[in-house]
Amino acid sequence: MRTDFKEAATKAGHSECDLPDDAGTYNNVPAETGFFGPNGTYLTEKGKFFLTWYSSKLLLHGDQILDEANKAFLGCKVKLSAKASLHPPGNSLVLALLIPFEF
């Protein structure tokens, strides 16, 4: 992931960008991190670039999962559907746990 991010950042003209180091870990809530805190890194150009890149990775991963499911059920008379839901605590913008940085 780190290499992929650096390649995407360089290609987009943001070679100085690196993965955020202030996003916390899996069990942190947003307010406990510098990334999602008030005036956090997510508001900066680097933070916005990272969130855009990461969301594209999540969408790609979802597409890959659905492709595999379609292959598994090819020829079967079933309808496939999927649902992904996120439940951030309170009125937080995003969960810090959505971005695990321990690659």
UniProtKB/TrEMBL annotation:
The gene is LOC102584563. GO terms for biological process: polysaccharide catabolic process. It comes from Solanum tuberosum (Potato). SUPFAM superfamilies: (Trans)glycosidases. It comes from the Eukaryota. The keyword Hydrolase applies. Its EC number is 3.2.1.2. This is Beta-amylase. The keyword Hydrolase applies. Belongs to the glycosyl hydrolase 14 family. GO terms for molecular function: beta-amylase activity. It is an enzyme of class 3 (hydrolase). It catalyses: Hydrolysis of (1->4)-alpha-D-glucosidic linkages in polysaccharides so as to remove successive maltose units from the non-reducing ends of the chains. InterPro entries: GH, Glyco_hydro_14.
